[in-house]
Amino acid sequence: MAYVTSRADSEQRLRDLALLRRVRDRIDRDYARPLDVEALARGVHMSAGHLSRLFRSSYGESPYSYLMTRRIERAMALLRRGDLTVTEVCFTVGCSSLGTFSTRFTELVGVPPSTYRRQAAEATVGMAPCVAKRVTRPIRNREVPASEPQLT
């Protein structure tokens, strides 16, 4: 069955996509600043709920999830450098809770930040930073699967 959309619907969809790109660009640029969905929505004159629905339908994840992925990617780079503590990295990338940061980092990367810091320093020795970033990029839209519980 073919669906016919009106010209107005198509134009609205294009306007929405342009606004969503602005939101995504703002997250990419301002990830270290305090951001929440309400502030992002105000910036494009939408309600937070509407922005979240549109963002998820277009990008496959919520604006908050996208923001946290950006923060974790930056945190991974800082942890690879090795000159900051996990707590310093947490606050540098814009997280205000070390617990939330550590939980989300572990969900996306598969190991806690402190373990990643130790392992990444060894694993990326001799790699160009741009290669290390690509090789160690977290999994988006698919979090690391939880391990099976061990029955004893």
Main attributes?
152 residues; 8 helices; mainly alpha
How would the blueprint of this fold be written?
Blueprint: H1 7-30, H2 37-43, H3 48-59, H4 63-81, H5 86-92, H6 98-109, H7 113-123, H8 129-135
What radius of gyration results from the CA coordinates? 19 Å
| Number of β-strand runs | 0
Distance between the termini: 54 Å
SS-based structural class?
Answer: mainly alpha
What general outline do the C-alpha atoms trace? elongated
Biggest pleated-sheet summary: none
Tally the helices: 8
Q: What is the strand content?
A: under 5%
Describe the model:
The protein is mainly alpha-helical and about 150 residues long. Helix content is about 65%, strand content about 0%. It has eight helices and no strands. The N and C termini lie far apart (about 55 Å).
Short description:
The chain is an all-alpha fold and 152 residues long.
